[in-house]
Amino acid sequence: MIHEGERNQSAFILAEGWACSFKQLADGERQIVDVQIPGDFLGLRSILFRTADHSSEALTRIEASEVLAADIFDSFAEAPRLATAVLWAASRDEAMVVEHLVNLGRRSAEMRMAHFLLELSTRLHLVGIGDRTGFDCPLTQFHLADALGLSAVHVNRVLRHLREEGLVTFQKGHVAFDDFFGLVALSGFNTDYLDQDGPLLR
C-alpha cells in the first residue's frame, strides 16, 4: 500500500481489517513499527514528508479510504477540528513508537509480549472488537517476532511460558486472557500513553 522511498504517496484510513507498517533492512529482515486496526491512519507521514519513510501492507482483507495530500491540506483549512484530530492521531502514534522503543530496549521478552497484547486489546476495545477476555488476532508468530525484536522460535517459547503461567493463550488466531490483571502486573501496562480512558484496567 505504501512503499518506503517513494514520493507522492497517499495515506489511508482503515475501515476494516488489519495492516502493519515496517522498515525493511538490506538483508531482508524487517522491523514492524506499528500494527494498524480499524479507525487508524496508514501513512500519515507519507503525505507530510516528501518521501515515504516506511512501508505499509495489509495483513488481512481490508477496506480503506485513500487520502490525498491535497485533500487533507484543503480539509485542514476548512475544518480546524479535523486538523486537531489528525494531530492527535499523529501524536498518539509517536507515543506508541516511544513505548515500543522501551519494549525493545528495556523489557524482557515476556514483558514485551504481555505489553504488546494488552496494547492491542486496549486499542481494539475502543472500536468495539476486543475486551478483557481477549480478541481475534491475525498476527502470526513471525509478525510478533518482527514487532518485538525476537526470533519466531523465541516467540513460541514466550507464548508457551505465558500460557503455562496461566496468563494468556494465543492459539488459532485468538488471544484469550486467562489472567488479565496478572498480565497487566507482569508488563506494568497502563493506558496513559494511548491518551484514552482505560475501562479494561478498572
Q: Summary?
A:
The protein is of the alpha+beta class and 202 residues long.
Spell out the key features of this protein.
single chain; 202 residues; alpha+beta; Jelly Rolls; Arc Repressor Mutant, subunit A; 2 domains; 9 strands; globular
Helicity level: 40-55%
* CATH architecture tag of the largest domain: Orthogonal Bundle
Please tally the β strands and state the result. Answer: 9
Mean pLDDT: 90
CATH hierarchy, class of the largest domain: Mainly Alpha
DSSP helix count? 7
Fraction in beta strands: 15-25%
Structural class: alpha+beta
Largest sheet: 3 strands, antiparallel
**Distance N to C terminus:** 38 Å
Overview of the structural elements:
It is a single chain. The strands form three sheets. The protein has a three-stranded antiparallel β-sheet. A three-stranded antiparallel β-sheet has the order 3-2-5. A hairpin with a 5-residue loop joins β2 and β3 (30-36). The protein is built from seven helices and nine strands, in the order ββββαββαααβααββα. It folds into two domains: 11-98, Sandwich (Jelly Rolls); 108-201, Arc Repressor Mutant, subunit A (Orthogonal Bundle). Helix content is 44%, strand content 20%. The protein is α+β, with helices and mostly antiparallel strands and 202 residues long. The mean pLDDT is 90. α2 (69-78) crosses α3 (80-106) and α5 (141-148) packs across α6. It has helices spanning 44-48, 69-78, 80-106, 109-126, 141-148, 152-164, 180-187; strands at 11-16, 19-24, 30-36, 41-42, 55-58, 63-67, 134-136, 168-171, 174-177. The termini are far apart.
